[in-house]
Model the fold of this input.
Amino acid sequence: MEVKLSPLETIVQQIGEAVLATTETVDHLASQVNALTMQVQSQSQQIQQQGYQIFALSDLVQTLAEAQQDSLEGRAQLTNALQRLIGTIEAQNNYSE
Done:
């Protein structure tokens, strides 16, 4: 009877080895998936931070553009005032002559 059980034992042993090998492969793949998940989460946080930085930068650019517009308006007013002053001076010079 032992002769008939030997092939069965061999099959059971091979099945056991296959199950162990499959378990190790699944464990290895699970570790890789966990590592990839950590990388994706890290990249997601980096992208979120970059989004905040882009928002802050665009706000800063908007503020800079507004300040430049105010500066241009101030220069235009100064130019007008200087032109009126020059006109007044020229008129006085022409009147004096």
Summary: The mean pLDDT is 92. The chain has one helix and no strands. The first helix runs from residue 2 to 96. The two ends are 142 Å apart (CA to CA).
